[in-house]
Amino acid sequence: MQLYRLALVAVTATAIAGGVAANEDVINMQSDPSNWAMQLGNYQGHRYSQLDQIDTGNVGDLQVKWTFSTGVLRGHEGGPIVVGDTMYIHTPVPNIVYALDLNDNGRIIWSYEPRQDPSVIPVMCCDTVNRGVAVADGKVFLAQADNTVVALDAKTGEPIWSVKNGDHARGETLTAAPVVVRDKVFIGISGGEFGVRGSLTAYNTNDGSRVWRAYSTGPDSEALIDPNKTMMMGKPIGEADLGVSTWNGDEWKIGGGTTWGWYTYDPDLDLIYYGTGNPGTWNPAQRALNGERVDNKWSMSIFARDPDTGLAKWVYQKTPFDEWDYDGINENILADIEIGGQMRKVLVNFDRNGFGYTLDRETGELLVAEKFDPTVNWASHVDMATGRPVVLDQYSTFVQGEDVNTEGVCPAALGSKDQQPASFSPDTGLFYVPTNHICMDYEPFAVSYSSGQPYIGATLSMFPAPNSHGGMGNFIAWDAAKGEIVWSKPEPFAVWSGALTTAGGVAFYGTLEGYVVGVDMEDGEELYRFKTPSGIIGNINTYEHNGQQYIGVLSGVGGWAGIGLAAGLTGDSEGLGAVGAHKALGDYTRLGGVLTVFGLPN
Amino acid sequence: MRSLLCRIAAAIALVNGAAMIPAEAQEGTVPPAPNDLTAEIDPLDNPYHVDDGKVDRGTYNGYRRYHSSCHVCHGPDGLGSSFAPALVESLKSLDYVAFAEVVVNGRQAQGATGNSVMPSFAFDPNVMEYMNDIYGYLKARTDGALDRGRPQRLPK
Q1: Strand ranges (E), chain B
Q2: Is residue A243 scored above 50 in pLDDT?
């Protein structure tokens, strides 16, 4: 193994100074700005492009160059991948993958459509979404809803190998985009609302054999934690098997902690990063120990792991003992920024719970934790010594108790931000974040576990953040060194699309009504807006072909946003002002998967 | 009441492999429920009590159970979503027995949006034990007797 690593280091020494080998092919693809080689643009999750042909001066002239219907109507998350002359796009169930020829107006080179058991569909809690494919070493990796991981030949679409990662009869499904590091592909799991036990699994990219699996709950031997080495808040955890002892009895076995977000990787530190989701039932009383709060580790945590062994280098739990479904799976963006006069290697996470966290990504030390939406009220602040949120009793659904409706909690269970990935611009040093601006009432109650059935145990109603602009979303610029909003642009609906920043000084995002919006990265001033055929919950990507820069996005409303907002929220007629006057998303857009590609006039 | 129990038993028996009742044979236009506050709650004839926005215990429980087990597909307040139909529309033509049949057996339909699949809840105690309450809540919504949002409870 060591020899193999050394060999690869030699090969890629020019690509990554001082680092161990990542994946030569992936590094090469992502270092060429004409490609959009990974779902998040690069290993670090920047969603930034060096392309600058489209800039603040001409973005207003953008026009649609070509379009492509995916033939599938459900919610389209993720985005187009471009490598050389080929674009790869994917769909929700039935999880079709298309390879399109950019030299021939998007002619279909090949398509792949798996046969899947339809009984998978209803265990996908929030629509049959898929967040896209990964391309590496001449293969296209797809995580299908029915738990099949398949490697396709990138030239022909023929399956090379496939492997099962879970069982939908237990409520397990796959929605997340794989990531490839060296000869391993990382696969997460979905099903947090069905009492599954979350994990991240590494498979060998050559033959699909399983290399390791790290569970999010349970004994250290299965969570791949060494309590004497794995760090938490800057020192070793010390205590063994917290993934068992911080639960009520065997609840950890159905303890959630799913891993359906985005994964990032630091080639220099050789660590992969990902988040774990909400613990088991949404009724916190059933997860308490002897009537007291208990951490439910390692749900709601950020893990840094060795990609070869899976061993956790460090872990940080953002929301111990969740009481609101603040599902902690959001992407961890790796950036080098100046904090207190020093350049720091940081990880920045915009959590569902409304706090923007900045951590040292080598040690897991917590540097900054501030609210990225001013309405967040469930906790007053994060105690920087312990890393724990200081929860207010008024908004604690545990303190208020079972069968009590806890009112006015901000954010709602959708989070101040859901899975829609943010962007980091090395030009401005700022983060550009699509956010939700929605609050909720939440009433937990007793629920029984039944394998493969919903395991929720709470009812909640959501409404636009009170005493604000009346809209349900904002697109913000965030200073992760100070923990401050730089500017904030209100939107009528939650901003549920992945953001893009560019060297041309334009940031892009999509809206639930279906608009592609371009704004000036300096001040958020809107420079461009075009309505695509359906609402956008996908990510906006950019690439260059034959010397022209293009912007590509999948429309197709759905997902949790489509379920929660299609009919509008309650309280939508209560004097919310112009921006909040029409709340039903169904009045603006309907289903339909379409790729739209934009470019400048010739 | 006895006939109701028999009909539920018949619906549940379908789980064990018997043919599904064709949906159209079950469906017609269902008249609004009477909302007779003096009569006992009965899912067939008098599924809910609503008085000035306040509801009986079962309908309130139905609100909670719906928003735990059903709303992640069927949307808030029975209004539907991009993923599953609005039950405040469906219950205009599905009576209690037809409703129970779908909840127990599930349903698959091929439509323009691809496979639409309702799972069987026959083995989910969070649904089966409260099916009457869930129906009562949705029927009150369907009949326009109850607004969106969290209802208040009638005094006992």
Answers
A1: 50-51, 54-55, 107-111, 114-118, 152-153
A2: yes
Q: What is the pLDDT of residue B27?
A: 55
B75 touches chain A (CB under 8 A): yes
- Maximum pairwise Cα distance, chain A: 69
Q: Which of B66, B82, B103, B110 to mutate to test the interface with A (most CBs of A within 10 A)?
A: B82
Which chain B residue is nearest to residue A454, measuring alpha carbons?
B69
Asked if the structure places residue B37 within a domain, the reply is no
In a shared domain, residues A26 and A99:
no
**Do A543 and A494 have their domain in common?**
yes
Mean pLDDT (whole number) for A192-209: 97
Q: Is the pLDDT of residue A566 over 80?
A: no
Which residue of A123, A447, A567 is in closest CB contact with B75? A567
Same domain, A450 and A544: yes
Report yes or no: B108 at the A interface, CB cutoff 8 Å. yes
Indicate if the pLDDT at residue B1 is higher than 80: no
Q: β-pairing, A541-545 with A548-555?
A: antiparallel
Q: From the CA of B127, how many Å to the nearest CA of chain A? A: 10
Supply the pLDDT for residue A122.
87
- Whether residue B109 is predicted with pLDDT greater than 60 in this model: the reply is yes
Evaluate if residue A20 carries a pLDDT over 90.
Answer: no
pLDDT in the model for residue B112: 63
Percent of chain A surpassing pLDDT 90: 87
Contact, A280 vs A225, CB < 8 A? no
Active-site residue list of A = 325
Give the model's pLDDT for residue A208.
98
**Are A9 and A140 in the same domain?**
no
State the pairing for strand pair A506-510/A500-502: antiparallel
Least CA distance to A445: which residue of chain B?
B64
**pLDDT tens per residue, range A454-480:** 999 999 888 899 999 989 999 999 999
Measured distance CA(A424)–CA(A411) in Å, rounded:
23
Total number of domains constituting chain B:
1
Structure confidence at residue A321 as a pLDDT band (50, 70, 90): very high
Which residues from B are below 8 Å from A563, CB to CB?
A: 71-73, 75, 81-84
A115 and A37, same domain (yes or no): yes
**For position A214, what pLDDT does the model report?**
98
Residue A527, domain CATH? 2.140.10.10
Mean pLDDT of chain A: 93
Same domain, A22 and A159: no
Three-state SS across A118-143? HHHHHHCECECCCCCCEEECCEEEEE
> Which pLDDT does position A203 carry in this prediction?
98
State whether A130 and A21 are in the same domain. no
Full DSSP string of A511-558: -TTSEEEEEETTT--EEEEEE-SS---SB-EEEEETTEEEEEEEE---
- Assigned domain for B105 exists: yes
- Together in a domain, A222 and A264: yes
Tell me, yes or no, whether B82 lies in a domain.
yes
**Mean pLDDT, range A285-296, rounded to an integer:** 97
Give the domain CATH number at B116.
1.10.760
Number of domains in chain A: 2
Residue ranges making up the domain that contains A45: 32-599
Contact between residue A475 and residue A432 where contact means Cβ atoms under 8 Å apart: yes
SS3 A106: coil
Contact A447 B76 (CB under 8 A): no
